[in-house]
Amino acid sequence: MKKSQKLKILHLSRAPEKIDLDKGLRGLSEDLFEIDDTSRAILTLLGKKEDPLTQNLLSNHISKVTRWSVRRHIFDPNGLLENKFLYTSPASKHKTETTRKFFSLTFKGFVASLAKMNFEENILIKFHHKGLVQESNQMTADLAIQYMKYNLTLILLWHRINGIKLTFIQDLESYFSFFNQFHLYDKIPFTVEDTMNISQFDLYSVIRRQFLALQISLARILQRIEKNDRTELYEEPILNKKIHLYKSNTSLYSGIRHWIVSLPFSQYLHPNRIPKIIGMTRGNVIDIRTSELQSTLILRKMNFIKFKRHPIVIL
Fold first, then answer.
1. CATH code of the domain occupying 37-109
2. How wide is the angle at C-alpha 34 spanned by C-alphas 170 and 171, nearest 5°?
3. Segments making up each domain of the chain, as ranges
């Protein structure tokens, strides 16, 4: 792959807040998971279907791919099953008394499937969104899905910039959950000088700022909806100030904050003090003095509803 092609991971239009996340996720997923076209076709098909599929059903829906080719891609060493892109659903007895195995996407398979489909089109996201609507309302669920989308893009872009492939990481679900728990996307080991392309560095800064706006806004919403919430101090690098991290024991909170773990089961800064290690450029940070206003403006540009100003708490 040519260097210019390899670096073209995310598309940013003239307005910094207008980022084509689906196009970005397609490029990131394709780059970070080194699997062949047939494997991607299997993952994409499973991402579209409501029910798990057998080898036969998979081969019937993928053009020019035989049942034996599907079997090889699933069961061979370093195949989709061994590398945890798939898991086997409970087997069932066929009328011929043979046992049929059904396959579903793991969280890793879900992320890899985004190379060929949009985030919201994946069946796991559709089921998860439906559950969030039932727990809250349409607006909260829609905003939560955007939170997840930005969260995933941020993590994948972090790995892309740092040259870390994900193909052979077995338990991607636990790894990404750990990444979120300790906010490792704010502990960037690269600097401007190390970055292969300054545009990627700028994109990371823009996406992190927008993700922060979503964190603030979702925390506000959950504080209004939930009754047993609590907050604890958190050192937010972008704001360069100790603010509050929202926590709760409700299923709604868990479904949003811990979405990476929940998803596979849905189917059944102060601008004058920017730490260089954080990798934020002055134009793309939120000033603590106007952060509430800026988060609202960001959300308005992203076509989200306007929220009133409240003390800073993030999800």
1. 1.10.10.10
2. 10
3. 3-28+119-314, 37-109
